Amino acid sequence: MADLAALQAEMAQALLAGRLEDIGTKVQPGPILAREALSVHRDTALGGLRHVLRLGYPTVLALVGEDFFDQAALAFIQRAPPSSAWLTGYGEGFADFLADDEHARELPYLADVARFDFAVEAAGNAEAGQDGPALDLGEAVLRLDASLRIVELDYPADAIRDALAEDEARLAEIDMRRHRRPLALWRLSDGAGVRRLGPVSAAFVQGVLAGEDLSAFEASEADLRTLSDEVFSAPFARLSLKSRDGDFP
Amino acid sequence: MTMHTLPRAFAMDAASSPAPSQVAIGRPIPAAAGIGLRAPHHAVVRDDRPAIAWLEVHPENYLTPALADELAAFADRYPLSLHAVGLSLGSACGLDVDHLMRLKALERRIRPGLMSDHLSWSLAATDTGPLALPDLLPLPYTEEALGVVIANVDRAQAVLGRRLLIENPSTYLEFAASCLNEAEFLAELVRATGCGVLLDINNIAVSALNRDADPAFALADYLALIPASAIGEIHLAGHAVRDLPGGRRLRIDDHGSRVSVQVWRMFETAANLLGPRPTLIEWDTDIPELPVLLGEAAVAQAILNAAAEPDWRHG
Fold first, then answer.
1. Domain-by-domain residue ranges, chain A?
2. CB of A57 within 8 A of CB of A118?
3. Scanning every residue of chain B, which has its alpha carbon at the shortest distance from the alpha carbon of A87?
């Protein structure tokens, strides 16, 4: 098995890096040159991964265009190729890659846009309608949807994605100033739901998701009103009154 | 709240798995012409329910909960085959167990009439960890590689609890180390594992033409070496032709056009010898409107109907 294992490791790495001559000596001479034949496989493999990234990062693609995106995608694929045939979720590090990419520095919000694209994809791929973490509130129980996740961004990636999907002219109206923007994302029947949260709500939800003891969570009257509006009545949450025998929905 | 529609993306317990014969298989795939179901046709097939003998999908495209739900709805209405592309049955490092279990979960839910993958590999163990490339990479046809594929097919069939069909791939090169031809390799695999064969006639043509061989002779080699009873499905597709320097031509299995005249003739030969078999029209790039696929399936069905005439086949 040693010969085959070595051949496959060498061939996979050569295809990824474009060093096709590394494999040429192992190929029987024929009417199609080894370089030509191996190029078909390289084009298919890298083209497929590029396609996965394009699907997963539609807002990034719309912002930077196909040429820039494809160059960045190829560089990312070569640095972080997949380790499994299951490509759902492939490309998680693309946002950090873009943040470090000197060619992307003109668009400081690009990495956050990529983080948001990835979060939308992840939420939409989660199981629907499953109860996640719960918090005992005394007379009631708060249950969060199992798909719920909080993403904190510095730039308004949600508004950018909406504008590009609906009316690009709205991009000019977006407040692009940098400040912390917590977002809740969860699975809907046909995609992902997104809701902006204030800092109190974000801290509260993150505490529940982390299973923290929130008995000492301090909230003012105003904070409680905010929690009621942003969390307790949100589509990703379910508040149930307790009965003597258990939850009373 | 904002709604975001998802883009469409392009999976052990062997000891407790029942033997292949113990698991009930879903709605059987008829010996008729079906089509590969791809995303652009989901809506029209779901809403209009056109008359199609059966459908085939790549299970790797349906491994999220929402997409598995969508596939289950199709399986309720049509006989369905799962044609995997990611098992990497030729990998010397063995199977990706997590991926196999994901496929098993989908298989348990869908209960496909047939399940298949390719005589190829896509996963390698490198110094820096596993490396998976989404392509059907070629194997050297050696005794060592045969042992690897036999072990992987045995394990996959045990875990899935069913017989797999293994498809002959399109090849663009041959390894200097090969000591068997592809048909001999597949015939040995069938003998050792009890798997079936998915005979892709376009792939036979592409591989033969790429080595300046006669596709008809190549097909005859397959039909002579592989037991007819093992051939459980046939694939038909179009391929691209790229001109190379020196008047040479490279055939690329892109599934992006109509079935070639040469492949139709080869299909007639195979159908007349084998009799009707489940036959699939594959179209994966530059995907046309559904009626174009159905038209190609109708041509295949006419050939299958003619092959069903006993006087023609045995006279």
1. 1-107, 129-249
2. yes
3. B10
